[in-house]
Design a protein that fits this description.
By secondary structure, this protein is α/β, with parallel strands linked by helices. It contains 13 helices and 14 strands. The strands form two sheets. The protein has a ten-stranded mixed sheet, with helices on both faces. The two termini are 30 Å apart. The chain binds threonylcarbamoyladenylate (TXA) and magnesium ion (MG). The site of threonylcarbamoyladenylate has 27 residues, from strand 5 and strand 6.
Length: 344
Amino acid sequence: MHVFQTKISSSVDEALSYLEAGECVGIPTETVYGLAADACSSTAVQKIYHSKGRPNFNPLIIHVDSIEMAMQYGHFNEVALELVYECWQNQRFADLHIKENMKKQQPFTFVVPLKDNIKSVLASEVTAGLKTVAIRSPSHPVALDLIKRLGRPLAAPSANRSNYISPTTAKAVFEDLKGRIPFVLDAGPCAKGIESTILDLTTLQPVVLRYGSGDLNRINEVLNAYQQGLQVEEKQTSVHMHMKAIRAPGMLQKHYAPKTPVRLNAREQLAPTEAYLAFGQTPAHIKVALNLSETANLEEASVNLYHMLRELDQRGYNSIAIAPIPNTGLGMAINDRLKRAAAS
Ligand code: TXA
Ligand code: MG
């Protein structure tokens, strides 16, 4: 594999020129940093798999700058369209009230049937041979600008080495992938800190494939307005594990994991060599290494989660003990990732 002198910079122009030359680069999104390449170039997309060490059966998300671009690649049924307009509405209003619409924008990735006429255009490596494609419209202005100027979708998984923790800063991307990619575009830390929520929209009832930073209440409101009583289907992970075809390979049990062993729902620190990662207030006798959120705020904990796990992983503890996190709203995404981090 080619050894790069990896550059880290805030130049969008430079990032674009690497993408146009068929290279893959680290880019910011509002959820986590992605490792992006031109989704219509097989050689470029192959570089994503190589530099991450990602198994080739695990498909990638394509990132689009507009609903129009999404529709060129995927087939959206009636329910899917409702959700697209709800979640990616900053595109709908173009440049009007951009700031306000950005706030409403929701980090959802939708899995939809791949359009027949686009199969020869999209690099086949993106979908790993599936008949569906995962599409997301990020709200990060830098990501949107890159896609718009490239004129094609960007294929991008999270910009970490396969199975390690997703990066929420350009520095974390650099540490994981230096020498393996030419460029990391630095636009500061990610606002959300946890990956997008993935919904399967190939059937009329959407199915949650991965919990994430998207708000499922918003989805359920839209579904209920479309047809009274319609709600997303939330399957247990174990059900997925027993499915013959794994629908979102990110559901694989061991994933998002630090190198240091992780212990969950910890109410005590068992040894001085154990790091205690707190959430909210903790009894005074526990020596807290870091706190996800002193005020027990789940949004703040999401933003801090990966960053703090990486930090503790580097400090050389024997184990990381993590306080219980309430299993509601964003807490479900946090607990999902923690469970995978702890799986052996
Ligand atoms: O927030 C995010 O979603 C970040 C940013 C960079 O966009 N991306 C991300 O990508 O988390 P990745 O590759 O780490 O996770 C995407 C997940 C994988 O588990 C993959 O298996 C699943 O999406 N996926 C991709 N295409 C799929 C498809 N056609 N059907 C089912 N699952 C799919
Ligand atoms: Mg990932």
